Amino acid sequence: MAKVVRFHQTGGPEVLQIGDESVPAPAAGEVQIKVSAIGLNRAEAMFRSGRYLEAPQLPARLGYEAAGTITAIGEGVGGFAVGDAVSTVPSFSMSQYGVYGELVNVPASAAVKHPPSLSWEQAAAVWMQYVTAYGALVEIADLKAGEYVLIPAASSSVGIAAVEIANLLGAIPIALTRFGAKRDRLLELGAKQVIATEEQDLVEEVKRITAGAGARVVFDPVGGPTISKLAEASAQHGIIFQYGALSPEPTPLPLFILLAKQLTVRGYILFELSTDPQRLELAKGFINEGLVSGHLKPVIAKTFPLEQIVEAHRYLESNQQIGKIVVTV
To answer: By the 8 A CB rule, do 110 and 80 touch?
Structure first.
């Protein structure tokens, strides 16, 4: 028996419940992990509330990222041994798997041996953020030294990962945050410029910073009406990655700006990498190298024990955090 988090109806954090369940042995192609830490993601809050890419099948489990020790191995799985320390890459459906719990089964393809220098909390905060940022900035945009990249919601774990990767490539990350309270911390974390979008004119500030050229790459998880300003702040022939839909408002297509600047608006999610073995291997190599060198270092905003999963989700949705929220088990 193990403690497992489920929800029986969609809604706010309060719908999450912890119960004791019997966890079966891993099936063919799976590994079983004794979980030490869980990384929380906005996608899980959206899944819990019924606003995600897939609808939950109630009663539902949830959770993409965990770190822990392999306790059992399913048939046909190679490359792992009982006792291996691993963390999970989001590459599966939460309708089939979920890692909020003490003991979980996941596809072996989602398990990764992370650098041993990482703590459990750090290891649970790696793959969603870095694979998401890597795929857009490195693989697709081919971001170069000296180029500007706009990063809305920069205080999120993915936003900070994008800042780190931009710096690793020699690019110039411009962090966007709603208010100036997070400015100093974002600068400490590597942002070269910070724009508080509720207090400053986004378009004019980008023009000033880039000497009128605009940013070639925009990496946006928010959507909503601000896409028009992001398009105005983009460089000629720039690319806007829309990798999330945090805004509850419609996202209007700024057609005339797109035509005038010949912009690309690219819908993007990490699953196009994480479910492609060849592309994922390249991503893991880049990220593990960055973790070992210290250029990439997961930032933990706050930790909660598993018993406080409801409070952890409330904090996740409060927008107070800078970095990753982690639940310890």
So the answer is: no
88 and 223 housed in the same domain: no
Region for residue 69 given its phi and psi (left: phi exceeds 0; alpha: psi -120 to 50; beta: otherwise):
beta
* C-beta separation of 144 from 113 below 8 A: no
Residue with tokens 């490539």, as numbered in its chain: 169
- Looking up residue 217, the CATH number of its domain turns out to be 3.40.50.720
- CA–CA gap between residue 300 and residue 70 (Å, rounded): 24
Q: Pick from 254, 271, 288: which residue ends a domain?
A: 271
Q: Quote the domain boundaries for residue 314.
A: 2-126+299-328
Beta bridge partners of 111: 88
- Provide the residue-wise pLDDT of the chain in tens; the chain has 329 residues: 899 999 999 999 999 999 999 999 999 999 999 999 999 999 999 999 999 989 999 999 999 999 999 999 999 999 999 999 999 999 999 999 999 999 999 999 999 999 999 999 999 999 999 999 999 999 999 999 999 999 999 999 999 999 999 999 999 999 999 999 999 999 999 999 999 999 999 999 999 999 999 999 999 999 999 999 999 999 999 999 999 988 989 999 999 999 999 999 999 999 999 999 999 999 999 999 999 999 999 999 999 999 999 999 999 999 889 999 999 99
Question: 206 and 170, same structural domain?
Answer: yes
Q: What are phi and psi of 269, to 5 degrees?
A: -140, 155
- Residue 289 inside a domain? The answer is no
- Whether residues 184 and 202 share a domain: the answer is yes
**Structural domain count of the chain:** 2
Single-letter amino acid, residue 179: F
Q: What span, in angstroms and rounded, lies between the C-alpha atoms of 308 and 266?
A: 37
Whether 121 and 135 map to the same domain: the answer is: no
Pair of tokens at residue 79: 């490359």
